Amino acid sequence: MRRAALALVVAMSLPALPACGAATASRTGAGTSIPAATGAVDAADVMFLQMMIPHQRQGMEMAALARTRAVRADVKTLAAAVEATERDEVRTMTAWLLGWGRSLAADPHAHQAHGGLHVTSPEDIASLRTMNGTDFERTFLNVLIAHQTNAIDMARTEVRTGTNAEVKSLAHRIDQSRTAQIKQMLGQLN
């Protein structure tokens, strides 16, 4: 929550930058710099990042619950990997958007422009908070499978419609990693 507030404060304090960011690096809260995504940027690139940031934050929120609610080590390990990967991706996506002088928030109707892609409901996440043990693990894995399927759909849309090579490369990596995670989770459910 503090990082989101910090990103908002940083975003509000930055001057407007051109749409195609210069090849500068953005500093993250962790003290590391992230190279700016260079090259042409279109509305699909921006929308993808704006939609993925809250999507990834939901994934991180669910994964964090597994630290104390899951029983099996393999589920906890998967959740820790999901949380770390998505945290790094959010830092990168945030830095790119801020570097381009773009808002971190998508238009409220942004999902409609991408075919009405679904998001994980707050009720699903609230339900996970009430569970522990094997009930948590089964529900967590099922909800996260659906959640990561949505990430794949968004990533594939970016690869088809985006312009920026670095954003498209990130989308391709998201597609590959979430596909592997889903395969792993299906195995964990069996």
What would you note in describing this structure?
The chain is mostly helical. The protein has one domain: Ferritin. The protein contains seven helices and two strands; from the N terminus they run αββαααααα. The chain has helices at 2-13, 43-69, 73-99, 110-113, 122-129, 133-161, 165-189, and strands at residues 25-27, 33-35. The chain has a two-stranded antiparallel sheet with strand order 1-2. Helix 2 (43-69) packs antiparallel against helix 3, helix 2 packs antiparallel against helix 6 (133-161) and helix 6 packs antiparallel against helix 7. The N and C termini lie far apart (35 Å). Residues 1-30 have low confidence and may be disordered.
Task: Give a quick rundown of the structure.
This protein has one domain (42-103, 118-189): Ferritin (Up-down Bundle), CATH 1.20.1260.10. A two-stranded antiparallel ribbon has the order 1-2. 69% of the residues lie in helices and 3% in strands.
List the helices and strands and how they pair.
Layout: H1 2-13, E1 25-27, E2 33-35, H2 43-69, H3 73-99, H4 110-113, H5 122-129, H6 133-161, H7 165-189
Antiparallel strand pairs: 1-2
Helix pairs in contact: 2-3, 2-6, 3-7, 6-7
